[in-house]
Amino acid sequence: MHTNKKAILVSLCVGVILMVAKFVAYAITNSNAILTDAAESIVNIVASSFAFYSIYLSTQPKDENHPYGHGKVEFFSAFIEGVLIVIAGIIIVAKSGFDLFYPKHIQQLFEGAIIIGITGLVNLIIGLYLIKTGKANKSLTLEADGKHLLTDTVTSAGLIVGILIIEFTGIYRLDSIISILVGFYIIFSGYKLIRKSVGGLMDESNVELVGEVVNILQENRHNSWIDIHNLRTQQYGADLHIDCHVTLPYYYDLNKVHKEISDIDQLINHSTTHKTEFFIHADPCLPACCHYCKMTDCPVRAEAFKREIAWNLDNVTKNQKHFSL
């Protein structure tokens, strides 16, 4: 079984067990704070189910209808998970707000805290496992699910503290207040996940990723790579698609141009952890490029070399040659 599928299936099975445990804790205590944690477990299961399908789909090979593969579905999966988290948070805040003014009797909080503590520890272990696997395989879905479980762990820890305070102080209204605060934290976590997934669906530039590619090109540049500009990236699941313009000496024949472009492709694929597909447009050099061109044996140089223009995020992503020093 594919590593990503195995990881999300483990998350799903464990999530069902933990959800049952949390609802048992709620039945014992009648605590809103514990119900908050149990309700979020339902979201975990629904999100993991959708994530399992999205991971299955993202591992399918390219076809005629999906020439870039199916990796984008992972952004959609993360979006759905974020929306579910926000909805759960809103419901939690609304119910807890009502019970703040019409409180219910709660009991056996110490036993409930023990159950929530155990589920929180399990979520911590599974969450770290998913994040580690997701980063290793460049899966946004696994990372999102792992971070969701870590959020659940944090909320469980907060609930345990709150439950114990209620148990020792007897201030039962704190149950709803704690639940409301946790609800707002859950809403904020969901918003961040939605923001990241929408950015991926809209092909928002990944500045960190682009910066990594630019640094690799700068550190390994050939003299014949006179200029690189209009560099853009798109991420499809674990795959990275990059297109850019490369200025090469205009007297190079087609075989030489192909060789230089292949060198760039191999450089990036051997230097990053992403599987990268390059689309490179070759531009011919102009006399205005001579002052920053480092070709030592150029037969058509019109001006002496002055100094190299270092490539960075600002100039490589612009759609123009770097004429000015």
Automatic annotation (TrEMBL):
Chain ranges passing through the membrane: 7-29, 41-57, 78-98, 110-131, 152-171, 177-194
Domain Cation efflux protein transmembrane: start-end pairs: 8-202
Membrane-related topology note: Multi-pass membrane protein
Domain Cation efflux protein cytoplasmic positions: 210-285
Keyword set, alphabetical order: Membrane, Transmembrane, Transmembrane helix, Transport
Record carries keyword NAD: no
NCBIfam families: CDF (TIGR01297)
Subcellular location: Membrane
Gene3D superfamilies linked to this entry: Cation efflux protein transmembrane domain, Cation efflux protein, cytoplasmic domain
Record protein name field: Cation diffusion facilitator family transporter
Keyword rRNA-binding among record annotations: no
Family under the similarity heading: Belongs to the cation diffusion facilitator (CDF) transporter (TC 2.A.4) family.
Chief location category: membrane
